Structure formats: C-alpha cells, structure tokens
Amino acid sequence: MRQLLLRPGAEELNYEIRGIVKKARQIEALGFPITWENIGDPIQKSNTLPDWMKDILADLLKEDKTYGYADSKGVLATRQFLANLNNERGGVQITAEDVLFFNGLGDAIAKLYQFLIPTARIIGPSPAYSTHSSAEAAHANTAPITYRLDPDNQWLPDMEDLYLKIKYNPSIVGILIINPDNPTGMVYPKEVLENFVKLAKEFNLLLIADEIYQNITYNGVKAVGLAEVIGDHPAISLKGISKEFPWPGARCGWMEFYNREASEEFAKLCQTLENAKMIEVCATILPQLAIPKIMSHPRYFRYREDANFKIGQRSDWMRELLGSIPGIKFNPTQGAFYNTVVFDEKLLTATQSLPISNLQLKDLVESWVEDPGIPLDKRFVYYLLASEQICVVPISSFCSDLRGFRVTLLEENEVQFKDTFSRLGAAITRYLNS
Q: Do 282 and 313 sit in the same domain of this protein?
C-alpha cells in the first residue's frame, strides 16, 4: 500500500476463544464432530429461553415502537428500571442518566478504551478476558499491564503484586475487576472488593467492574456488586443480558456510572462516551424493551435460581472428574460458567503428545505444533483437539504466564458433560505421562 494502514498496537487485538475455532473446523472438515468448550455461548449448548420469555418478545414484536430508534442513551424506562435495581442494593445511588446502553459489552469495552489517551493505562487481571486485554493493549500501542490472580489461593488477586505495579507505574489510571471472573469462575469476597476501593482511593484511580455474570453464582456464594462498596469514589460497572437470560445474540450491554460528578476528568469521560453513542444514534431497541418485562416477571427469579443450581451441579461434577488428577491445579468455581485448569509447568515438555490413529489428523496436529516457540499449553490444546475432538482454549492466550486451559460448564446433558470431562481427564493423564 502507499502508506501504512494500521496504527501501532492494532496487532494486539487477538481473540483466541474464537481463533481456536479455525483449527477445529479443519478437523470437522475431515468428518469428526467437535465438542465445543471454547466459548461461553449457552445457546450453543442447547440452553433455551423459556416460553414465557419468548412470549414477551413475541408481544414486543407486535408493537410498532419496537421498530424505531431508542433514545441515544437507551430506552428511558429501561434505564430507570436498571437504576432502581442498582439502588435496591443499598450502595451508591444512581439515576437513569447514569445508565448508557451499547450493542453488547464488546462495544462498550471498545469505546471505553478508545477515548483514553494512549499513555493512560488500565491494569487488569491475569489470566485476562481477551476482549479487555486486547482492547487496552491496542489503545496503548503496547502489551497490556496485568495483576496476578493466584491459582494457589482460589484465584483471588495478589494484592501486593497489584499495589507495587500501581505504585511504580504512574501511567496506571484505573483498575479493572471482573466479578464473577472470566476465565477462572472466581467470585470476589466483599473484603477483597473493599481493598480494591482502598487502593483506588489511595492512588486516585478509576475503578471499572465487568459484572456481566453478577447474577450467575452458585453453591452458596453471592456476588457483591461494586456499587455496594464504592462509596463516593468514581467507577463504572459493565453489565448485560448475554449470559443471564441468556441472549448473547441480542448484543445488549450497558454501563452504569457511579459518582460521575466526584471527578472532573471522570465526568468528561462519561460525557464523551454518551456523545459517542449519540453519533451512532442508539443501541438495538428490542432487547432494551424486553429487559424490564423479563426481569420483573414473577417467574424470573426462580428461573435464574434453577439455572444457577444446574451450573453449580455441573461445577461439582467437574470437580469430581478433574479435581484429583496429578499434575494440575484445580479450583472449584463459584460464579460465571468457566473453569481454568493449570498445569504444573515442571511436568510439561515440548515432546509430549496424545495418540492419534487417523493419519490425516496426526499430520495436521504435527504441522500445528512444529513451531519450537509454541506455548506448551497450546501444544496440549492442539493434541486434545485432534485426539479427542474437544475444543478448549489455552490460558497462555488469556495474557498469562501460566500454562493451562479454560473450559465451560454449559453442557446441559449430564451424560454428555460427564463423558466430555472424563475423556478430558484421561487425556490430561496420558499427555503428562507420554
């Protein structure tokens, strides 16, 4: 081309959660069905919306207003409804004017980092959710800055690591929290959230909480919202319906601004995000109209309670099948619907493999792993894909120095779920002993 097309940092955009699909499709093309454990799409795993939800959507489709524009910030009645839900928690109080809709949280995350100056850094957890880490790195034209989640301490954050990185890096202007966490399934205790707030106040930092899984917790655990502990400090909460209803195809997410007038710079950021949405006119209206009707329906609480119980049950099954395998670190999950399994790195080598009887599959996977610099967890993931046709995501792709993989807890069929993770567990043992 006549000139360079890409800005510095653009190549940091990476999404291995979907990238691994390209490899899986090659195997699928050879006639092998794939068990998809790479992405948190409940619909892909036969999770269906109940008929009463579908009836609400069908009725909305009969209304003419469903086909028009919404207010630029989002449907006013829905924003009022969501503000009231927040206020019922008893923490920081907001109004409809503090709620801003986007076409999914991916859109919201991209906008958030887009308008920060390149020298302003948001430190986030590692293992990292790729949408956040890639967008932050792309905006800053360099690799993301992260704090450590500790697999030896139930994936809780290493607060000393976070403190030192903030103290000695004045470019950090904000802290990202993902609660419940993707990819680990950890839920922050209240005291940990309070420590985040103390840090933010000490160094005058913005707090950002991705809380899209806030209502997906189980096994006796409930998530504490950032709004409940933030006090008078500036913060943004990111929420959506993709996982909770679940309706990922709706592409419907929103920001909640907490204490926007507490900081002039934060108020400017909020206004800029609102202006950006005005330029786009509005976010998709149908899911916005559906939110208050669905979430205030008398069946909704029980629906979510039952769904959470089933995810918790699958978490227990996974612990039974994988929790005692030598050579890995396994933490039972408490929220969201993922688990991150970490290898003892001393046991990983560049010569390990899994038996593959089909010569085409064998040749394919050997071509994938011939690069001597391939992360050792990605090598395992490729062999697992070729040997067992189970598609998982390597943790090295989640901006982490750890070596392991992420799986989901979404498979509704008990027989299929137990078969998948029994085969996965056996594959781990064979691989480490090869």
A: no
Q: Give the total number of structural domains in the chain.
A: 2
H/E element, 157: strand 156-157
Dihedral angle sign, alpha carbons of residues 388, 391, 392, 393: positive
pLDDT for residue 39:
84
Three-state SS at 156 = strand
109-125: buried (b, 16+ CB within 10 Å) or exposed (e) per residue?
A: bbbbbeebeeebbbbbb
Specify the pTM. Answer: 0.93
* Predicted local confidence at residue 9, as pLDDT: 45
The side-by-side arrangement of strands in the sheet containing 393-394 is 328-329, 338-343, 404-408, 393-394
pLDDT, mean of residues 140-161: 95
Regarding beta strands 390-391 and 35-36, do their DSSP bridges make them parallel or antiparallel, or are they unpaired? parallel
Q: Which two tokens stand for residue 93?
A: 């109080």
Q: Which letter does DSSP use for residue 160 in this model?
A: H
Residues 178 and 321 in one domain: no
Domain-embedded: residue 4: no
Given a contact cutoff of 8 angstroms between Cβ atoms, the answer to whether 127 and 182 are in contact is: no
Residue 402 domain boundaries: 10-47+301-432
Residue 44 pLDDT exceeds 60: yes
334: helix, strand or coil:
coil
The answer to whether residue 13 scores a pLDDT higher than 90 is no
* Region 333-340 average pLDDT: 96
Q: What is the pLDDT of residues 55-100, one digit of tens each?
A: 999 999 999 999 999 999 999 999 999 999 999 999 999 999 999 9
Report yes or no on 132 lying in a domain: yes
SS3 for 3? Answer: coil
- Displacement of CA 135 from its chain's centroid (Å): 13
**Quick one: pLDDT at residue 11?**
46
Structural Rg of the chain based on CA atoms = 22
Same domain, 104 and 236: yes
For 233-264, the DSSP string reads S-EEEEEESTTTS--GGG--EEEEEESGGG-H
For the chain, the residue count is: 434
Lowest mean pLDDT among 110-119, 154-163, 182-191, 234-243: 110-119
